[in-house]
Design goal:
The structure holds 2 protein chains of 2 kinds.
Chain A: H1 7-28, H2 34-52, H3 55-64, H4 69-109, E1 112-113
Chain B: H1 17-21, E1 23-29, H2 33-44, E2 49-54, H3 61-68, E3 71-74, H4 81-94, E4 99-102, H5 114-122, E5 128-139, H6 143-159, E6 172-175, H7 176-181, H8 191-202, E7 206-214, H9 217-222, H10 226-242
Parallel strand pairs in B: 1-2, 1-4, 2-3, 5-7
Antiparallel strand pairs in B: 4-6, 5-6
Helix pairs in contact in B: 2-3
The chains are: A mainly alpha, B alpha/beta.
């Protein structure tokens, strides 16, 4: 079955297939979000098809009015890169917000009261404010 | 939007003591060690409930705040001015504040301007009062900084759809009701534009009040350059799109 494939197809195709498998397993076990799993599995499968059937990219390209198959692959790669950056950026934003909530919560819990202006009643340096 | 008469005489002495006692002044501070003590001392002559939020400073801001402020809150990790203000407001609300004033730590604001901000809230004209340096006066404001601030005003006009004379002034007053409804999600500097958005969304009545900004070498160094302003605009627009 592998007779018709060249070395490139076997090596890179194998890596991409393994990647898709990891994504599917990851989504099933909730290691990654379902949405991410689906999106990147499709990308992986499309890549796999393009590797095993190189002619298909040229057909798709000419159907879209783009000259060569390689150009189409290049454009798609750039778009996917931006998608990847954007998703990472959004994740980062989310993490920052969570961190802020945590930092805020601790700040309010550990608020110090009455240490200023010598008007404090308590002498303890870190007197926690009861909510 | 109605603007308070600039000549209306509201002095600190005329402000009722019980109003002062129910007012919490929130001062966000990030590496403000050199200026903070004087600022807090000035404010505390009139308002006892001074809340300093040390936003993860690396200098002696926390120690200085402990020496002079009534309440000291510490962000263990720097989260930005918007986050620090929100923390201070939440704390003030927990402690039963009826009025919350936000005040900069770098010495550019005057405690004398606070009564004028509280007045429209007290007499029921507004829930939020925003300080405006262009209605009032800004002493020693360099031309480039004026340009950046005016650009900010236009930015606000275009993207927030609110006409203000000064969109990026840290001196503001909120009624308890307004403070409860305004939740700042822009952790960094874009909170100023975000607050304007929140005012519009919540439809809380607001006024702009003339205030005097004292520009010093110190406060200017702490302010925003044109490049910083562009970064803030980016954060604001991304936040508007995805939040």
């Amino acid at each position: 079955m592998l007779n018709g494939l060249n070395t490139f197809q076997i090596v890179v195709g194998g890596v991409v297939a393994a990647f898709v498998l990891l994504l599917v397993l990851g989504s099933i076990r909730n290691l990654i979000s379902k949405r991410d799993g689906v999106i990147w599995s499709f990308v992986g499968l499309a890549t796999l098809i393009a590797i095993l059937q190189p002619g298909i990219t040229t057909k798709a390209a000419s159907a879209l009015g783009i000259g060569r198959g390689a150009d189409l692959v290049f454009y798609i790669a750039i778009l996917l890169m931006f998608l990847g950056f954007w998703m990472t950026y959004m994740r980062l934003r989310h993490l920052r917000k969570e961190m802020t909530s945590l930092v805020r919560h601790i700040a309010i819990l550990q608020a110090e009261e009455g240490v200023g202006k010598g008007q404090n009643v308590e002498t303890s340096k870190r007197q926690n404010v009861e909510n | 939007m109605n603007q308070l008469d600039a000549n209306e005489d509201i002095s600190l002495a005329a402000l009722p003591a019980d109003v002062k006692a129910r007012t919490f002044v929130v001062i966000p501070a990030y590496n403000e060690g050199p200026a903070l003590a004087k600022v807090v001392a000035e404010v505390r002559q009139h308002f006892d409930h001074v809340v300093v939020v040390d936003d993860g400073s690396r200098d002696n801001t926390h120690a200085v705040a402990q020496d002079c402020a009534r309440y000291v809150l510490k962000h263990l990790i720097n989260r930005g001015q918007g986050a620090a203000i929100q923390t201070g407001i939440e704390f003030a609300l927990i402690r039963g504040a009826d009025f919350v004033v936000t005040f900069d730590a770098d010495g550019q604001h005057r405690v004398e301007d606070i009564p004028a901000l509280l007045a429209p809230i007290l007499n029921g004209d507004a829930e939020i009062a925003l300080g405006s340096r262009f209605l009032g006066s800004a002493t020693d404001l360099p031309a480039t900084r004026r340009l950046v601030l005016k650009a900010g005003v236009w930015f606000t006009r275009i993207f927030n759809g609110v006409r203000l004379t000064d969109a990026h002034n840290g001196l503001r007053a909120f009624s308890r009701k307004a403070a409860q409804r305004i939740h700042i999600r822009q952790d960094r500097m874009a909170h100023a534009s975000e607050i304007i958005d929140l005012i519009r969304e919540t439809e809380l009545p607001f006024v702009e009040v003339p205030v005097t900004i004292r520009y010093t070498e110190y406060s200017l160094a702490k302010g925003q350059s044109a490049r910083g302003a562009l970064r803030i605009a980016f954060h604001y627009l991304v936040g508007k799109m995805v939040d």
